[in-house]
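Hello K.,

You asked for the raw outputs rather than the summary table, so here they are, unedited. I folded two proteins back to back in the same session to keep the settings identical. This is the first:
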Amino acid sequence: MRVILAQNAARLARARIIKFGVVGASGVAVNLLIAGAVSDLMVREGFSIGSATPAALVAGIVVSIFTNFLFNDGWTWADQRGAEAWLVRCRKFYLTSAGAALLQWAMSLLIHHFYLPTEGFWFLSADALRLKVAACVAILIAMPVNFLVNHFWTFRRAKT
């Protein structure tokens, strides 16, 4: 019986990790779209790329956290939604994501600062490429931290 329970728990954990990854991929798309749009808008309004980058990264992170919460709450951990109220889960998700977001933001700025392509790629300028690469690498660093804290705190099963 213990073996069957352990196998089911392992299968559920793998499925949850895959779902989290799919949601995270959609969050990457949201993050990059928002960061790119905000950066472009700020540069058009006269800001330098250096001053637009931090704000663009924050905007991408904040919006993607909310869309990720909606998908994770409704799909990844849907079997545990009844454990706590929606606002409590949302607050916990934002608190959890804030730590991962700060890590992502700091890593993005660090990578953006040191990754200096001299040419663009395809339709991206060198500055735009630097922003995208920095955001993607930082997301890959922050994602495992975010999953673990959400799994064991934000969406944990209610004690019975």
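The second followed immediately with the same parameters:
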Amino acid sequence: MSEKFDELVGVMERLRAPGGCPWDAEQTYASLSQYLLEEAYETFDAIQHAEATGDIEHLKEELGDLLLQVVFHSTIGKERGEFTIEDVAEGISKKLVLRHPHVFGDANLETASDVLNNWDELKANERKASGKAEKIKESILDEVPVHFPALLEALKLTKKAAKVGFDWPETDQIIEKAEEEIGELRAAISSADPENIEEEIGDLLFVIVNLARRLDVEPETALKRTNRKFRKRFGYVEKELEKAGSGLNGSTLEEMDKLWNAAKAAESGH
């Protein structure tokens, strides 16, 4: 490993050693799992920020935090005699070589789609060759973990179904389906049935994710960008109302909407 990486591993081992940090010493795979998820999401946000602004300092920091989680888990693994960070690095290196025969071998894969299809085939072959007992799958959708975040799960499910031909022939048909789901949601709202409303909201969201897949848009990224846009515009509304001395609670919807449109116009330069 490199000097800086070895230094990181050494720092982590020192923190876990007797006389080190009590909190670090108490951690386990399970106790760290929530932090791993948090750091992954923070890195995701940092990527979006870097794409929007060109500022990569935050991304560099968050990647470091994410790397720390890998080193932390590997340090625990080493202490238990289960695996080391070298084992982790070796494993992923071998996997990358095996799953890129078009780079490290003689396979001819010309498109990104060819690469992905071959990746899935190689992955399945590796599972069979490993001799590991596999869970019995009654459906190809069983390959999508149920614990994925809802947007990611929906995206993966529709991708799996589309691969075997269960897909709309035309994008417009998905849009028509979304319009149909909006109609069903309107009917559910009119019926004032909470369970039916929830179901129809879910159906609508699922169709939108399917539309995103068809248009090659990653829905989590798209929604995150919209969330940041909402934060920015709403922040403008708050500041302007504070300047006017009314604040949010002392303002009408019409006043807030006017400022919202002003913020929107400012973004577009109109």
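The mean pLDDT is 92.

Happy to rerun anything if the numbers look odd on your end.

Regards,
P.
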